[in-house]
Amino acid sequence: MTVRVRRVHEPPEPDDGVRVLVDRLWPRGLSKDVAQVHEWPKALTPSTELRRWYHSQEDAADAYEEFRRRYEAELAAPEAAEALHALRELVSKGPATLVTAARTPALSHASVLAELLVSGGQP
After folding, report:
1. 1, 54, 70, 88: which has the highest count of C-beta atoms within 10 A?
2. Residue-wise over 6-15: b if at least 16 C-beta within 10 A, else e?
3. Reported confidence tier of residue 102, pLDDT bands at 50, 70, 90
4. Residue 109: its pLDDT value, please?
5. CA-CA distance, 56 to 33, in Å (whole number)?
C-alpha cells in the first residue's frame, strides 16, 4: 500500500493515484480543477477545537505528540472510524496521496492518517 502526503497547492503528479483532501475547509485560492481531488472525507478531519488548539501552540513540533493523541481519540468516534475504514479500503486498491493545506504536512493530521492507513492500526 502506497500512501503519500503532499501539500494540496503542489501540482498533481502522475503517481499521486487517488488524491484525498484531508482538510475540513477547502483551501483558499485553489480551484477544484487545479486541485484534482477525488475524495474529501470531512469526517476524518480534526475538530475545529483541536485545530485551533494546535495552531495556538508556539512550537508545533513540541505540541505534535499531544495533538496526535487527541486526534487519534477523535478518530475513534463512530463516524470517523467508519470514514477511516472506507478510506483504508480505497487506498488498498492502489496508490493514494493525502493532500492538505498545512504548511508542514509532516507535523499535521495528514501524516497521522497516512501512518494509520499504512500500518493498519486503529486510533
Report:
1. 54
2. bebeeeeeee
3. very high
4. 96
5. 32
